[in-house]
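ok so i was messing around last nite and threw this chain in just to see what happens. nothing serious, just curious
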Amino acid sequence: MNATKVVSGLENRLWILPALCILTIVIGQLCAAKCAFIQGDILGIDLNIFGILFYSLLLVSLLVYRKFYPEDWFMKAIAAVASVGVGAELILVKFQVENNVYCPKCLISGFFFIVMFFLVARHLKKWVIILLIAAGLLFTSFTFNGSIIPSYGEEAYPQFGSDKARVEIIVYSDYFCPHCKKIDEQVNTILGKLKDRVRIRFVDVPLHPGSLEYAEVFLYAWFVSGNNLETAVTVRELLFDTAVKKTDQDGVIALLKSKGVPVKSDRERARSIFRGFYNESMKTDKVNATPAIVIVQGGERKKYVGGKEILKALEALSSP
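result:
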């Protein structure tokens, strides 16, 4: 089958392309835990829902055009909607390039959509298409609010607060860092106020001797307690206190158990999290000193280093 026959076949069955777009989004959601993907909204509507609604509109329109209403002006209207959609698609691609994280379902559905666009674009003049694409670019620039949820493989990793939050706070610290210990209580108090509105992640940075073993203990406790912020805060407070005394790992584990905090030692699993989530986070945010936090909001990723900057940023975030 040559290219001409393929194009001709697609032109007679254009509805297949938006249908494939919808199918890609649905399948993409099923593997969202394993794939990097965009999380966001347009006009307050979740990006996935918005995409399904948009492609459903094109799907229904193409079916109506082919079966019931094969008028030229109707196809021009479909081409106009697709042209605006191209502008939106360019913004989403730009967002992924800027964040250096690529969403498979977005790119695959976008490919099917672009193929459809080129097949219907011939119904409009070039200058009209350019204006409509520009309109789509402007509209999406002002209405799209998104963030990147990176993939760290199949290994789960500690995250607390709201899973659906659009704002993420990553706390970088070292249990042997006196400045981290100094602000820890204040940071935890603010995080407790924000937990229903943000997603919280702790990343232990092993800058001092013994830091890695303490970071492992935090994960040993997390293996049992799961994503419970109150337990995580309790464990971190105990680790900061015992670091001052330079208690060895066995002593720290014994102390946690005496305080009623269950632990499950699994060094390989803990090191796997370090190789994945922890190392990737530190590399992405270029963290080489503690204390530090990174606030991810929309398309922005801002880092704050030092107690004053950190507390000021968190307090601003917690303000009504």
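not much to say yet. Strands lie at 37-42, 45-46, 144-149, 160-161, 167-173, 198-204, 292-297, 300-305.
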